[in-house]
Amino acid sequence: MSDKCFEINWSGDSVHVASTEDTKLWHQRLGHANFRSIAQMASKKMVENFTKSVQSEDVCEVCQIGKQARLPFPANTSWRISTKLELVHSDVCGPMKTESLNGSKYFILFIDDYTRFSWIYFLKHKSEVAQVFVKFKAATEIETGLKLKTIRTDNGTEYTSAQFQALCNKAGVKHQLTNVYTSQQNRVSERKNRSLLDMARCLLFEKKLPKNLWAEVVNTAVYLQNRLPTKALEQKTPFEGWFGFKPSVEHLRVFGCLCYAHIPAVKRDKLSERAQLGILMGYSTVKKGYRILDPLTNKIQNKGEPEATSENLIVDQTEGVENDVDMDLDDEPVRGTRTLIEIYERAHMAQIEPSSFEEAKADEGWRQAKQNADGSLNKLKARLVVKGFSQKYGLDYFETYAPVARLDTIRLIVAYTAHMHWNVYQLDVKSAFLNGILEEEIYVEQPQRFEVPSKKDMVCKLRKALYGLKQAPRAWYARIDTYLLSLDFQRSFSEPTLYIKKNNTETQLVVSLYVYDLLVTGGDEAILTDFKTKMKKMFEMIDLGLMTYFLGMEVSQKQGGIFLKQKSFALKALTKFSILNCKPTPTPTAAGLKLSSQEGHEEGCETTYRSLIGCLLYLTATRLDTCLHKAEELKLKGYTDSDWAGSKDDMKSTSAEAEYVAAASAVNQAIWLRKILANLNLFQEGATEILCDNKSAVAIAKNPVFHGRTKHFDIKLHVIREMEQACEIKLVHCNLEDQIIDILTKGLSVSKFNKSRKLMGVCSMELKEEC
């Protein structure tokens, strides 16, 4: 060593060990085939373009992990046929716990007994076996000019079905079934399944690939094993036995290696990238080329020959001999560094939340979130959030549940307010969770960049709740619940977020709590003002005045009543799904429309479909199941109906049963509403009528006699009888013409739809103020 530099001695001659490395490389390319097969393939020249000398057998760690098995049972010799397609073995493997990229859970193998050539098909359901068998039979018979004579399978229901048997009988194919619990009689298929899965495990484990690529791995294993020697054939591969000529292995590459696929000129401009990075997923049987996985889109495409692959990064080892050559070595180059967030987002792998104050400050997302339409900042706001994900149940927290007002409750309060000719006001508590008082003893680290200089090694004890704590919502609810009760409010037993303040004769104030939003209504302005003053004194809050927007609902409080709509959200949904300029129709659905999952419609995007369903469910916030038509007396009245046999895929219930189930649900809702109205001093005199258009359902409710056709009804459904006897509910039959809620369960004609809408008291806010 001189001047802090090491001298390295090089010799003019070097000894390469490429032969051992070549053996390992071809062992990988051939799907971790055993070394004996590779040596046999080379020595007997069973394939083209393979002249490598194979070294003695080496131990492969991947093979030890993926292929470990018990010692084999003694083999039995058996007679073999002498013609292609005279006997074909078949077996179905699955279901796999993980679906493949195309949603498959099974694969089916067909193995020609004479050549041992294999075909594989992937299935989503076992019921597809018969359809795949027809495809396999047609393809092989056309290719060889021979007829399939016999197929041997196990006793799986997919093979013993009437459909499969009928196909065999029609085609004149003899179907041999193995004896029960005697898989050895179908050992060709069983052994092939095992060898394929052994190879598949090795390919997955070596590159640490996700299990949803199992179909690509098994498909590649079949491709490779058709080109590997088998004991059933002498000096031939299954490929040569089937096609009559030796296969070439020059094109084989290591499965799962990185590669660069050429991008055609028609798909790029002059300044675009000319190659695309991908992962080799095997060999295409449809086109001449490779199957390459795009890691950005997670889709597989058929491409031509990759320009370069990562498997080429195999370095020849050399043995040095001393010499006297001095070498000048440059300093190590200075390399730029990027954070994990930058790397992941640049590669489109993930969106990472900032883990430090510096990363959060450098992120432009917070600035964009606080900008007004003109680009100015709305407000500067930061919030300290604790790492609640590290809390442990029983040590750092116990109970976490905090009730939230139901939409039914919100709509009932609006209906009650309209009936009383009051207004609904809205209060917003600022940083509500910070008001919660903790029952547990919680310690947290000092916030980064805000440590006390002389006490950096100390932690902080929380005196109140902070955002991020699992018990923060419950602590806030307990705090405001205690305070409202101290103001002489009574909490409803049926709705824990509903608080009522009343004197002996009338209700004075009604408060509904939705997390940190308070809806307040009352008839005395002085009492309302006093309540707001006390709340502002205890909690920091904003008086938003009359309720105009709440949970996506636009609220218009007018002299003629209170109107709810979701116009803005509906327009956003129409724009999102590109149907804003669609032609309007007078009814939501066509009359008598019946949907079925079995009809051959074009399959759409699941993500878009789920998003659309979510939007429609959100629009039900203003549905008409709790509404009030302007009247002098507030009399609770209900309607029940069901769309019997509305699904063509599953029509198991009778009309009476379906109506009875719907009626039981309506009774439960009516009992709950009666209790809420009683809390509001609106006691219902007599039983609440629930109108049903099915005489059988009404008869079952009124007649407690045991009947054979109703014995399977759940006991909970008979709440109708109990409430009838208690004079709380009265189930009444109504004519079809008077059943106004058909509008909510069926596709109606225009005239029927308009009639039902009018009877429910629905009108346009833009055209009328009263209805």
UniProtKB/TrEMBL annotation:
The UniProt entry, under SUPFAM superfamilies, shows: DNA/RNA polymerases, Ribonuclease H-like
One Pfam family per UniProt: SH3_retrovirus
Give GO MF terms, alphabetically.
hydrolase activity; metal ion binding; nucleic acid binding
In its UniProt record, which GO terms are filed under biological process?
Answer: DNA integration
Q: Is Hydrolase one of the keywords?
A: yes
Q: What is this protein called?
A: Integrase catalytic domain-containing protein
Can you name the source organism?
A: Gossypium anomalum
Q: Where do the Integrase catalytic domain residues begin and end?
A: 70-246
Give the record's keywords alphabetically.
Answer: Hydrolase, Metal-binding
By its UniProt entry, which CDD domains does this protein fall under? RNase_HI_RT_Ty1
**Cross-referenced Gene3D superfamilies:** Ribonuclease H-like superfamily/Ribonuclease H
